[in-house]
Amino acid sequence: MTGLSSLLLTLVVLTDFVILGTSRLSTCIRAIGAQGLLLAVLPLALHPGWSLHIFGLALGTGLVKAVALPWFLRWAIREANVRREVEPLVGFTTSVLLGVAAVGVAFAVTPGLPLPEREGALLVAVALSNVLTGLIVLTSRRKAITQVVGYLMLENGIYVFGLTQAERVPFLLELGVLLDVFVGVFIMGIVVFHINREFDTLSSSRLEELKEP
Amino acid sequence: MLLALAIVPALGAAGAYAHRTTTYRTVWLLGAAAVHAGLVTAAWVSRPAPALGGWLALDDLGMLVLTIVSLLFLMVAVYTVGYLRHEDPRGGRAFVSCLLAFLAAASLVSLSHHLGVLWVGMETSTLAIAPLIYHRHDRRSLEAVWKYLVLSSVGIALALLGTFFMATAQFDVPATDRPLVLADLVRRAPQLHPAWLKAAFVFLLAGYGTKMGLAPLHTWKPDTYGEAPSPVGALMCGGLTALAFLGVARATQVVAAAGLASFVQPVLIGFGVVSLVVAAAFVLGQADLKRLLAYSSVEHMGLLVLGLGLGGAGAYGSALHLVNNALAKGLLFLAVGNVVLAAGTAGGTVRGLGRGLPITAALLVVGLFAATGSPPFGPFLSEFIILRAALAGGHTTLALVVVGLLATIFAGMAVSILRVVHGEPSPGIRREADHAWLVAGPITLAAAVLLLGLYVPAPLGDALRHAAAALGGTAP
Description:
Oligomer: heterodimer
Low-confidence stretches of chain A: none
Strand content of chain B: under 5%
Order of helices and strands of chain A: HHHHHHH
Mean pLDDT of chain B: 90
Largest sheet of chain A: none
Radius of gyration of chain A: 17 Å
Low-confidence stretches of chain B: none
Distance between the termini of chain A: 56 Å
Number of strands of chain B: 0
Distance between the termini of chain B: 33 Å
Number of domains of chain A: 1
Largest interface: A-B, 38 and 44 residues
Structural class of chain B: mainly alpha
Number of strands of chain A: 0
Mean pLDDT of chain A: 83
């Protein structure tokens, strides 16, 4: 674990807090794009040596997470003409505090885990923090597009965990995972777009026609 | 051969997308489904060799899932020909292509012996279904597809985390072992790290369990089944759930081989009982037939993990129930689809199908008895084996509770379905819904589920025995 990768991982956690604390959707999307870029550089910093596998992983991640998805999400909010998250189920200050608690838990739990190599500890802690904060965003926000961002944070956390296994899990598989995430978010984005057209709002809380009588 | 099973439907999807007229697209659909079924039959005759360095292989459990998906898909394809004559889903071009893409992904899942490939196939099948639910482009189907996408995606993300945990559990094995390949995982199971293995199992169960619709992770199911077009609903409750169960079964296979059965069994039994309780509570008084089928599906998923958790003959019962569930629920969903075509709703206002739509009404009643596990249909046999496994394992109270819940579910489903069948026909029932294309599929499925109740063919019996052995169980 070099200084550079520690720095990158710290910045990843910082972008989580930006998303937790902001009401502006464009800031959310910029932050998730920045996180994607950090995650693309991370494998290069972790495994210096320029193998084709690592390089391909960095390139694919960068293209999907830092370029394509942010561009697509920005298209969705422009078309749908929404700017802000309104009345989240949990306030912004509270969600930042929850995020602090989540990160605290993640860092407290990690040293107890039996890890193959001690250097991986920071990676696992950041991965768990990202998974937890992603779940917080996913459950506490009303706007469908913020929920998509939360889902991406969750996926990014899993990706960071996957980096501990990067040398063993083959390239082809990672490509498949990236592609599935991309298509998944793409379909979610299309649905978000239609939600806006049908309901004139991006709030998933308006989706409450279907329930037990 | 193995690759062809996944590639044929994928090519069919592309081919169907290239055509503008519905007729050509349905030819692609039927053609690809028939070729796929032919390939599966050939695989029963002589088992194909593993491909891609052991990533793809066909064992008995995968064979069972592949067969039921292929049979169900063929019936759904036949049904879809009739269905597309009555309904013209918006984005009709994508409709057939998404169905075939689902078949391709489903084949990949049943064939994969690599947990990562399994995950990729599972995610692809989830995504292929999503546009199909949303084919009506109205508010209700939009809401349904959003719930389905968010919950399934989070579930499947947790399963990915579980998959990575499984890879981490392998850190002590020799470097010659292929990471995440099932055969190597099972062979080296005792050397896997138990803490990571347990964590992997919990996450895989939560992830794929969401996709199966185990309570309390089932909340997307009634809404999605209620809004999905009937052929899609049939594929989801017979096929998609079988794939998700395969995911849970693969995780169980590794954990059981590692000697951690005592850790997983209570978890599986717990999920099973909770699912049965939830299903019993919501089946009562459920007038909408599609939502009724969704809760019935929660019940059957509960029975599947219950059998898996009981071990012994329960694993055999689960494997058999997997087949029976696909046949019975496929039959019921297609029959309910005819009700929707004839009356425009699956709600409780329809009456008198017995005289208005006799063939469909008969299929509904047969489906009711089959899906609730009454003799002489297949599910009776599999539920009986699971219950006997519970008694053999000393879980007498559990067995009694399960019998009580099954009886409640039978009463609830019988009231809702028989109400639709009896009485004076509602005005406006379109009799053409008893058309040959629309009843051929469900009749075949009804015959198959009846056959399985009377006698299990020898090759199927062998496959079930081997599958049960792989899951750490025995034949009854």
